[in-house]
Amino acid sequence: MTEKSTVHLLIVTGQAQANLIPILQLRPDVVALAVSDSMQENAKDFIKLLKTIGSYQDKNIIQFDQVPDVGLEAIVDKAMEIEDGLQELYPQSLISYHATGGTKLMSLGFYTVFSNEKNRILYCDMTHGEIETLYPQKQSPIAIKSVLNINDALLSMGQTYRKSADEQWQEQANSRKELTKWLAQNAEELDQFFGCINGFVQKAIKQTSRGQLNEIEHPEHTFNFVPRKLWKEALKKLVKHNVVQWDESKPDYLYFHSLKGAEYIAGLWLEEFTWHIIKDLKPEEVKANVEFAESGALKSDIRNEMDCVVAHKNRLLLIECKTINFKKGGDKNTDILYKLESLGHRAAGLYGTKWLVSARLLDPNTLKRAQEYNIKVISGSELKDVKEQAKQWMDGKT
Q1: What is the pLDDT of residues 96-107, one digit of tens each?
Q2: How many CA atoms lie within 13 A of 335 on its CB side?
């Protein structure tokens, strides 16, 4: 490495993205890491990210250990030691210290040392999408570019992408896009229809063991009344797209002739709708039925799944889609919200967003719990607003 190499110094912290994003954008020749005793494991993980996502090699990475995280005087002493070491290795180089990571006290101590003419101090402001130059002052901010796709964003949070909806799934979804959007546009009026059909589907499908496909066990079902008006229109559209079998000559009779058809009307349509709407807005990346696993436990292959994941401007949007009756869900409602909150925290991090898209309205208690978890709920007639809500998210307004 030459004396004029670009050198960037980071304090390793628990949230990798704020440190990783500016490195991937600015591409320094050398990445120097200041590591406290409590952040040793985080440092190992961060180095893996530098190698995997940033294509850095060991020779491009320097690690300074035993950095104090308490006691300003001790922190300043260590920062001076690190500065001397870097200046000795790269006497002709400007050292760029990133003030984003570490505790406030560590940031203050390192700022005190590195705020001199030999160095530059940067700060990654993800909220406003800028890399600020704190020292020297009066420097124009650098707009943060998109450097993380879904795979890399998950990896930066300790998750490994496994798979998502394939081309066959997408082709099937595209073939019935008109039907899917019609169901969403009329979701509020079809609330009882969805409840009835979902009840039929639960009776129709035989649950098999893990790893095997479910199967239709009871395909025939009977309405307690003759479907009319919007119910009738919905059934005709489902027949047109080969989802179910139904005939006006025998209107109280419904037949599930395929597992895929039953799964579609039981809830897959809402996943397809959400995917369609967001995909049409052309975000940087959107995937349906995303499966991922803890990077540190890949051998166990315990996978988490999210109905839709969107990556845009280095942020992730995690979406869970449901057509159940939340007013009768009970403990199941809490389980749904807890899963979304937990995965959102682990997979999307500080800059991620969590949505629950529901065909049916939530009960007050579940809605309140969702707000406590900072989960945005879009339900019932609000499905018409998914496009606008997604636009606002892509623009960084939510």
Answers
A1: 999 999 999 999
A2: 6
> What are 176-213's pLDDT values in tens digits?
999 999 999 999 999 999 999 999 999 999 876 666 67
Q: Are 232 and 247 in contact, with CB atoms under 8 Å apart?
A: no
The strand pairing partners of 357, in sequence order, are 321, 378
Please report whether residue 287 resides in a domain. Answer: yes
Of 84, 115, 146, which closes a domain?
146
What whole-number distance in Å separates Cα of residue 219 and Cα of residue 99? 62
Number of domain units in the chain: 2
- Three-state SS for 117-176 is CCEEEEEEECCCCEEEEEECCCCCCEECCCCCCHHHHHHHCCEEEEECCCHHHHHHHHHC
Give the integer Cα–Cα distance in Å for 123 and 234. 54
Residues 274 and 137 in one domain: no
Q: What is the DSSP letter of 190?
A: T
Say yes or no: 206 and 101 in one domain: no
119, 146, 173 - which closes a domain: 146
Give the structural domain span for 238.
148-398
Whether residue 1 is contained in a domain is answered as no
Which residue in 247, 259, 262 sits closest to 323, CA to CA? 262
pLDDT attached to residue 330: 76
Q: Tell me whether residue 2 is in a domain.
A: no
At 192, which helix (H) or strand (E)? helix 191-204
289-293-295-296 Cα dihedral, nearest 10 degrees = 170
**How far is it, in rounded angstroms, from Cα 325 to Cα 363?**
9
